[in-house]
């Protein structure tokens, strides 16, 4: 029992060290332009058996479990901060990239793998399926805080949030073709459309249910609302998966619906999940780093073949998938080039690479090591150069200011008023007007303004400028009227 206690304490100490190192490395990530996920993976590899030998870890089942839970939380957080007004115009393009684009990328990569490795065609297509989709965790992390054009960032985020069903479908299809004597192709195709369609339907239903429950149920503590919301996200995944649909897609759709609806304790929910998503990113990538053995990963043969496959994926396969899947879209050549370059690979391919390991597919360890190396290459080369590429292609815009303050009404759930935050874009009609000149509904008032880094206490004569952030206190019954009024004034809701 004493030794068991020591083991538990040792594990807790290591967990604390992993989290601390993960948080500290984010500082180096932003300073040196290296994606945080690479540093998190590096931490896992460092403390693993091939590094400092603190932890010996070789459990793909546990890695898959942690990876899926982390992806649920990361997709949920990303969806909460996705604006539907930005996603809606680019949704057809994003869905085309998430389906046809993934398939084309898979096919081109499979051809290169067949030529480079001593594997059969099914194994080659299995590898292509695993690396064919972009990764939401990587995309959300790298694009956060960057001044890339909103149309492009929304396209990439929507693509990465919705392309998991295609990647999972292709991966499972080729695993079944490799391990089973007979497989129904018609059944597999039906399964894909079921996963996509019902995943979206379940996401919408649970998103609506979650908003209703959060706004109607009065909890004793405001701190319970973020936990309540996260519980619904996990429930959404579980029930959707039991129905045979895409749980990850359902979580993302539900989160987008929630993020664009009136939600009690919105700031508390968003901030809590933002911090929790960072924690899960650290744990997920660190554990995935533990799962790989650097002595095998950085073998000269793996590195040479991995670099060649990465070259094909980044320079040939992804651009082919992008340009052929969006031929009639209203994107310029430079924008398509940027979308091609921003097809980041991350946790999803590594988690999918554990599937053939668990199923005992021949050459699965080789495929896993190569997938891992391709992910590292993609994150290092593409992830660290995205801001530079956007600038060179002239696809950046003026950075949108963020408030250094978080304003939220205390005991909002029990009071009859809420504070709503609005950002004033360049084209807003009320720019130049004073607060007494705008006609907000009764029982609503602008209680505070943020201009740059300055907190302004407004009066009736305070003039509204572009990029101001308005905090409007309104009676709960007037929230829709406030939103409708500001929409008519061409103000973009934050």
Description:
With 494 residues, the protein is mostly helical. It contains 20 helices and five strands. It has helices at residues 2-32, 36-47, 60-80, 84-87, 91-116, 121-131, 136-143, 150-162, 164-179, 185-216, 224-242, 247-259, 266-291, 294-297, 300-325, 333-341, 347-359, 364-383, 386-392, 479-488; strands at 417-423, 444-451, 454-456, 469-475, 492-493. The chain has a five-stranded antiparallel β-sheet, with helices on one face. Helix 5 (91-116) runs parallel beside helix 9. The protein starts with a helix and ends with a strand. Residues 1-6 and 409-413 have low confidence and may be disordered.
Topology of this protein?
Blueprint: H1 2-32, H2 36-47, H3 60-80, H4 84-87, H5 91-116, H6 121-131, H7 136-143, H8 150-162, H9 164-179, H10 185-216, H11 224-242, H12 247-259, H13 266-291, H14 294-297, H15 300-325, H16 333-341, H17 347-359, H18 364-383, H19 386-392, E1 417-423, E2 444-451, E3 454-456, E4 469-475, H20 479-488, E5 492-493
Antiparallel strand pairs: 1-4, 1-5, 2-3, 2-4
Membrane topology: Multi-pass membrane protein
Organism: Fictibacillus nanhaiensis
Main location: membrane
């Amino acid at each position: 029992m004493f030794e068991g206690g020591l083991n538990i304490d040792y594990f807790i100490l290591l967990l604390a060290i992993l989290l601390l190192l993960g948080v500290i490395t984010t500082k180096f990530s932003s300073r040196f332009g290296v994606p945080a996920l690479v540093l998190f993976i590096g931490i896992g590899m460092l403390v693993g058996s091939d590094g400092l030998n603190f932890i010996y870890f070789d459990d793909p089942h546990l890695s898959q479990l942690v990876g899926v839970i982390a992806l649920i939380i990361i997709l949920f957080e990303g969806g909460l901060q996705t604006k539907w007004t930005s996603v809606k115009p680019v949704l057809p393009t994003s869905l085309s990239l998430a389906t046809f684009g993934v398939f084309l990328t898979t096919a081109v990569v499979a051809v290169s793998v067949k030529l480079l490795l001593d594997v059969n065609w099914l194994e080659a297509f299995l590898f292509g399926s695993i690396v064919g989709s972009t990764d939401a965790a990587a995309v959300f992390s790298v694009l956060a805080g960057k001044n890339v054009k909103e149309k492009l960032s929304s396209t990439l985020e929507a693509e990465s949030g919705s392309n998991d069903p295609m990647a999972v479908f292709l991966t499972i299809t080729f695993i079944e073709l490799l391990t089973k004597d007979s497989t129904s192709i018609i059944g597999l195709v039906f399964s894909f459309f079921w996963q996509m369609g019902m995943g979206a339907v379940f996401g919408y239903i649970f998103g609506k249910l979650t908003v209703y429950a959060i706004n109607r149920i009065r909890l004793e503590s405001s701190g319970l609302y973020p936990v309540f919301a996260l519980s619904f996200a996990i429930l959404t995944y579980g029930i959707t998966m039991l129905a045979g649909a895409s749980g990850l897609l359902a979580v993302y759709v539900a989160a987008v619906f929630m993020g664009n609806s009136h939600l009690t304790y919105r700031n508390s929910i968003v901030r809590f999940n933002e911090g929790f998503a960072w924690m899960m990113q650290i744990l997920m990538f660190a554990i995935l780093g533990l799962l790989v053995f650097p002595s095998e990963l950085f073998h000269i043969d793996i590195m040479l073949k991995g670099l060649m496959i990465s070259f094909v994926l980044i320079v040939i396969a992804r651009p082919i998938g992008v340009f052929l899947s969006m031929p009639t879209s209203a994107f310029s050549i430079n924008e398509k080039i940027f979308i091609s370059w921003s097809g980041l690979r991350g946790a999803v391919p590594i988690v999918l690479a554990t599937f053939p390991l668990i199923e005992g597919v021949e050459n699965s360890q080789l495929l896993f090591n190569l997938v891992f190396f391709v992910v590292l290459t993609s994150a290092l080369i593409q992830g660290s150069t995205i801001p530079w590429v956007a600038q060179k292609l002239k696809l950046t815009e003026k950075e949108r200011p963020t408030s250094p303050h978080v304003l939220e009404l205390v005991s909002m759930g029990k009071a009859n008023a809420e504070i709503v935050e609005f950002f004033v874009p360049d084209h807003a009609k009320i720019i130049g007007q004073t607060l007494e000149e705008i006609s907000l509904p009764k029982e609503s008032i602008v209680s505070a303004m943020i201009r740059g880094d300055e907190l302004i206490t407004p009066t009736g004569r305070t003039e509204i400028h572009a990029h101001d952030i308005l905090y409007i206190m309104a009676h709960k019954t007037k929230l829709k009227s406030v939103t409708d009024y500001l929409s008519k004034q061409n103000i973009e809701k934050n």
